[in-house]
Design a protein that fits this description.
By secondary structure, the protein is an alpha/beta fold. It is built from 14 helices and 10 strands. The strands form 2 sheets. The chain has a 6-stranded parallel sheet with strand order 7-6-5-8-9-10, with helices on both faces. It has a 4-stranded parallel sheet with strand order 1-2-3-4.
């Protein structure tokens, strides 16, 4: 459970409760057990003091599936009496339209509750297809039912470390159109000025890029720090201060130098769209192999040994003296025609749980009269 979340277990609302299993045997045959109403009353007494503590209630499948009809009836009773908080009926599945469970419901009470919309509920389904099906079941306009797609958790799916995930949030990487990774230190040999001009050209063409340079300058070397400051000045002059970020300056305290270990660099490799390496010179070019290991496309200088001797012809190369605008155009051409990148970008921008909550769920939780931010 997320930090700060409480869990209250009520055995009586468990679909595997012995009393409920006994009732379900009769209900599935079309018989209403004599103890049904008493169990509904008992459920109402259990729920009322708990639900009174909340402003919002999200109910998953109970209003459209048959596994706990006493709970369904109890919630309808509380709705009719105005004793429930703002309630979302989250409906993944519908017994009345399911070929597997349609035979287990019958005309009349309580089964009809599963195909009856309640005016106090806000209904949510997980796809437009389910929206049409539920609207047909309720005989209502589809527009009355909200579609909120399922989401992914990048931290869990990509195995991101806590430190890496925090850095990704601080830099707002998931909102970008293109994530370019430069896993290098801040030295003149890395041709970082060129990278800044490429980012500026990408931005000028309407893209929202993020270029992340992982390595630090040498804080004990005055010349190295002077070079770093000059790059910061160039970044400001090119108006790409948000688009190009040094990890060195991106810690929890922006005023303190920030360093990351190889596992966090690996997090960024797994998250990024492109490994970008415009170096003037490299002794070998190890990031090209690392990018190949995680399936990350490579755009790099043709002068790098690993590019010429190992990566070719499976990477995209350019001369370190090329026109940055031309390299930007080549990157965009790749991005616009690569279906893997297109889907990857669409998912991270729209279908992570934070994005889904901000754009779709939070507005549904607004009380009447509020002005929610649709995101």
């Amino acid at each position: 459970m997320p930090e700060g979340t409480d869990f209250v277990r009520l055995p009586e609302v468990d679909s595997q409760h012995p009393s409920l299993l006994d009732m379900n045997e009769k209900l599935e045959k079309g018989e209403v057990p004599p103890e049904f109403d008493g169990f509904v009353t008992q459920t109402i007494k259990l729920l009322t003091p708990i639900l009174n503590q909340f402003d919002h209630l999200i109910v998953h499948n109970i209003f459209t599936k048959h596994f706990n009809l006493p709970l369904t009836a109890a919630l309808h009773t509380l709705l009719n009496e105005g004793k429930l908080p703002l309630c979302l009926a989250w409906c993944h599945d519908f017994t009345w339209t399911s070929p597997n469970s349609r035979s287990q419901v019958h005309p009349g009470y309580p089964w009809d509750l599963l195909r009856t919309s309640h005016p106090a509920l806000t209904y949510v389904v997980v796809s437009q297809q389910r929206q049409q099906a539920l609207a047909a079941l309720f005989n209502c306009p589809p527009e009355q039912i909200h579609v909120v797609y399922n989401g992914v958790d990048p931290q869990s799916l990509l195995g991101l470390s806590a430190e890496g995930n925090d850095l990704i949030k601080r830099l707002d990487l998931l909102a970008s159109d293109l994530m370019l990774l430069m896993p290098v230190r801040v030295t003149q040999a890395k041709n970082i000025e060129f990278a800044l001009h490429v980012v500026a050209a990408l931005k000028e063409r309407g893209s929202r890029p993020k270029l992340i340079l992982t390595g630090p300058p040498d804080p004990h070397d005055a010349q190295s720090m002077a070079y770093f400051r000059s790059l910061q000045d160039l970044r400001k002059n090119l108006d790409v201060e948000q688009e190009m970020r040094f990890v060195f300056e991106s810690g929890p305290d922006p005023g303190e130098a920030f360093y990351i270990d190889p596992p966090v660099v690996a997090d960024l490799f797994r998250l990024s769209d492109i490994m970008f390496m415009p170096s003037h010179r490299e002794g070998f070019g190890m990031p090209i192999l690392e990018a190949g290991q995680v399936g990350l496309p490579v755009f790099c200088s043709a002068t790098i040994p690993a590019a010429r001797e190992i990566g070719a012809p499976d990477i995209i190369t350019f001369e370190p003296t090329a026109n940055p605008a031309d390299v930007a155009a080549e990157i965009l051409a790749w991005a616009n025609h690569n279906p893997v990148h297109q889907l990857r970008r669409r998912v991270r921008q729209n279908y992570t749980w934070p994005a889904i909550f901000k754009r779709h769920i939070e507005p549904l939780l607004a009380q009447p009269g509020d002005a929610p931010d649709a995101g």
